[in-house]
Structure formats: C-alpha cells, structure tokens
C-alpha cells in the first residue's frame, strides 16, 4: 500500500510537469502558425478585429497571454472562452462532448478486449489449424487497415447495402455500435496477437504440462492456469490501446457526426480557436497520463513480481 501511495504521488508530480510542458509547447506552436482566429475568407474590419482581440486578451504581449491563461487554469480550472463558438466556454464544450467520447471509447475497448482475447485464446489452443491461420490473417488486416478506411467500408456495407445501422447521430445503442466497432477493431487485432503469443508461451511451461498430466480438464487448465499469465502482455498494452482509441476517435467522430470532444478538437484546429484547441490538448494529455498510470498500477497488482518505480 505504501509503494502504491508513493508511486501515485510521484506520477502526479510527473503529470503536472508533463501538462505544463505540453501547455508551453502548444502555446508557442499555435502562435507560430501563420494567421489568427479572425483570418478567414470573409475579411474582418480592422476596428472590429481590434475589439475582438481585446475581448479575448489577444492584444496583450505573448508572455502576458501565457501567464494569464496558465493562472486561470491553475487557480480556477478555467480553460477560457471559445473564440469561434460564441457564448460557449471551453469547460462547457468539454462537459457536453466528454460523455459522448468516453462512451464511444469504453464501448470500443470492451469490444476490443472481448473479441481480441477470445480470438487469441482460440488461435493458440488450435495452433496451426485453419481457424488459427484465418484469425491471425484477419488480425493482420485489422492492424494494416486504418480505422477511417474501415469506417468508410462499414458505412457502405452496413448502412447502404445491408441497412442495419444508421449512418450517423447519437443517442441510441444502434447509433454508437458501428463507430465503436470500427474504433475497436484495430485494437482487437493487436490484442488477439498478444494473447496468442502469451498463451503459447505459458502453454509450454512446466506447471501447465503438470496440470495436463494430472488429468485436469483442458478447459480448466486453459482458463485457470494459462490465461491469467497470458494476459499480462495484454494488460501492458491497455495504455497504448487507450491512446489509440482516444486519438482514433478524432476522425471517427467527424465521419459519424458524433458530438464528442474529438469533433470539437478538429473544429478548433481548422478554425484556429486557440482556447478550445488548448483545452482539448490538455484534456487528452491528462486522460492519456491517467490511463497509463492506472495500467501500470493494475500490472503490479496482477503480477506481484513487478515493482512500481
């Protein structure tokens, strides 16, 4: 317990340092890009642009903008007002979009774990069979095909040719099922390969051969003696898997017209909405850091030989 507490405190300190570094780099890069939030095809009169700059504190020196925004985040948790979405604060945009993105990510991970672990176990148990070759071949395709290409093919097949799912929208399970499947498919492919490799390694260990020699049922040996040890690589992959799901949702939310934070992120980047883009970058940074820390903790709990550092 003491090790977990000290590890958590250290990781929290590293998270603060990481968030500050990401904030600094993002601030510099946003200001270094040519143009500004008010440069568009429609020319804004200079007098109105000056008023808008004053309203959003963009007329202040860069170091003052950097300090004021950072102080607002640290002291009040205030991510500012969106420049392009009138009457919306970044906190309000996050509050509306985060449940959508979180639901999509959770469903995608549940699907990926269920399908990936099952396929990996079956493939390892029946190694060298036609089913093994078919499953691993499908896994290779799942890894090779980007999720946005898979989403386009899925829309063509399951929306227009075989109308099972709606093309877009949010609010029902049918509307979120197809994007979750497309988002989780590449992750499921990785998990299947990791599970198969872990299963094959554990199957060759002495205690497993001893269990078979004692006459234990094959199902009992696989589920009780083999699978727990084989899942350690899968647990270690959950951190990168979470990153893959979160970053992949940026494009899929746009394709399926989902009102999540991913679609707002793309909008902020294309419209040069400094405050909204910064809020999204910091949110994703915190989410990824927290999920990787939880994965490290769970890895130490599953395997007591692992020491937290």
Summarize the structure.
The protein has 309 residues and is an all-alpha fold. 77% of the residues lie in helices and 0% in strands. Helix 4 packs across helix 7, helix 7 (173-203) packs antiparallel against helix 10 (232-255) and helix 8 runs antiparallel to helix 9.
Ordered list of secondary-structure elements with their pairings:
Blueprint: H1 2-32, H2 46-55, H3 62-76, H4 90-125, H5 130-144, H6 147-161, H7 173-203, H8 206-213, H9 218-230, H10 232-255, H11 261-271, H12 274-302
Question: What can you see in these coordinates?
Answer:
The chain crosses the membrane at residues 12-33, 104-126, 133-164, 176-195, 281-302. It is found in: Cell membrane. InterPro entries: MetI-like (IPR000515), MetI-like_sf (IPR035906). The protein is an all-alpha fold. The chain has a domain at 98-269: MetI-like (MetI-like fold), CATH 1.10.3720.10. The chain contains 12 helices and no strands. It has helices spanning 2-32, 46-55, 62-76, 90-125, 130-144, 147-161, 173-203, 206-213, 218-230, 232-255, 261-271, 274-302. Helix 4 (90-125) packs across helix 7, helix 5 crosses helix 7 and helix 10 (232-255) crosses helix 11 (261-271). It is globular and about 85 Å long. The two termini are 14 Å apart. 27% of the residues are buried. The model has no long low-confidence stretch (mean pLDDT 84).
